[in-house]
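Fresh eyes needed here. Kindly weigh in on this sequence plus structure tokens:
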Amino acid sequence: MLLPNGTFYHPTCASSQTSPVLITADTAIPLGGKGSTTNINIPGYISSARVWYASEDVLKFYIVWNPATNSPTMVIPSAADPSDASADVNWGFVELSYTGSGLFANVSYVDFVGLIMGIRLEEKAPVNGTGVQMAQGLQTNAIKSICDGLTKQTGIDGLEWEKLCLADSKGNLLRVLSPSLYISDQPTAFENLWTSYNDKVWKQYQSQVLTIDSQSTNGNIACQVQQSDGLLHCAGSSTTYARPTANEIFGCNEGPFAISAGANDIHKAIVPRLCAAFHRSTLLSNGGNVQPSLPASSYYADQASNWYSKFVHQFEGDGRGYAFAYDDVAPNGGADVSGSVSTGNPGTLRIFVGGSG
């Protein structure tokens, strides 16, 4: 954790600490008012880090001994648990890695939409172009707009979309949970969202070939559903693919989308592209027999779609920001909707809190 004085703090606890204990060190870095800038220098390399932001209150982090790893483990705030100590706080984060290879950051809504923010990465002495990359993040009133859209969608299909919206103790909209996070507590939610769509996909690709563009030296991968076992078989893959459930689609890491230690490169290329196609409902679209190949304007055209992702992108200033795990999948030359920025020659990363207007 980074302290206000610009040094790293490493919280720890004894091996006897079996219950989470509050980290009391002052790790909060106060920000100024609207339009102000707070400068922060990172004293060393960090990997898979987060820059956390909270409005009107500080977030509470805990430490506990983890016998599985034989080391202390940090307990971070939960966006979904109403009993969490930070449940009534408006907060969010930017994901960040800064190593000898460069800097990578992204605006992520894979788990939830909370405190609105955007990012701008400026290269040091750029060689080509302006050396500036940006992900604007969500518009200032995006949470209300997203929830209005989700409520309308519940009225159309009767599913739990409107329940993704959470209010604070005063009844004010606070955050929007992703379907995957909501399902972690409500496992039967959305279970029939893709049932009919799956039936049509499996029927179509019994007689047609589904081509997965690996976008690598593995080239195009031919896939087809075999009537004998009802599974999708892809040439050269280390596994076959069953019809995914809604839970598996939202998470992209279980069932046919699980990547085991022994998985080959073909399977590793198929998983993100196939899962993204289900989220965006492009498998039955004209041209959807090649994945990825369609532009972002073709995403979410079917009722069997991730409507959370659809509305998140709709109310982003530039349509960029991860709304599910493999939202960085895009056709060659297509628009990057993931909201990530990176460079091997980093200068300044600017994080804007409050929205893009």
User: Anything to note?
Assistant: Residues 142-157 form the longest helix (16 residues). The chain has a mean pLDDT of 96. The chain has two domains: 1-190+342-357, 195-303.
